[in-house]
Amino acid sequence: MHEEKGVALFCDMHGHSRKQNIFVYGCNVKQQWEQSRILPYILSKISPLFDFSESRFNISHTKEATARVALFKEMHGECPQVYTLESTFSGIDKGPLSGQHISIQMLESMGKDFLRAFLL
Question: What architecture (CATH level 2) is domain 10-119?
Fold first, then answer.
């Protein structure tokens, strides 16, 4: 009998004071790099708020103590979908919403789109 592994996801959500837009920080799985990027890529296709080009998928020494990196290492890379979703405190400077300040409604929409992307 073959048992399939369930899909696991961890996402820590933060506000960002220096960068604009909404993006993720993820962890790179060297042999299967696409596994850590597929969810953010899907999210970029369904949400006008999400900026895939600002997303980063590396682990620097300065980020060793973050929840994202600590959990990824604890799981020995078995859970590639470990993210920090970062949202600007100020505004959007790319895409159709460029020039707008982030609003509560935008953040709620982003949360819904994030869950939709995970379910696709």
Answer: 3-Layer(aba) Sandwich (3.40)
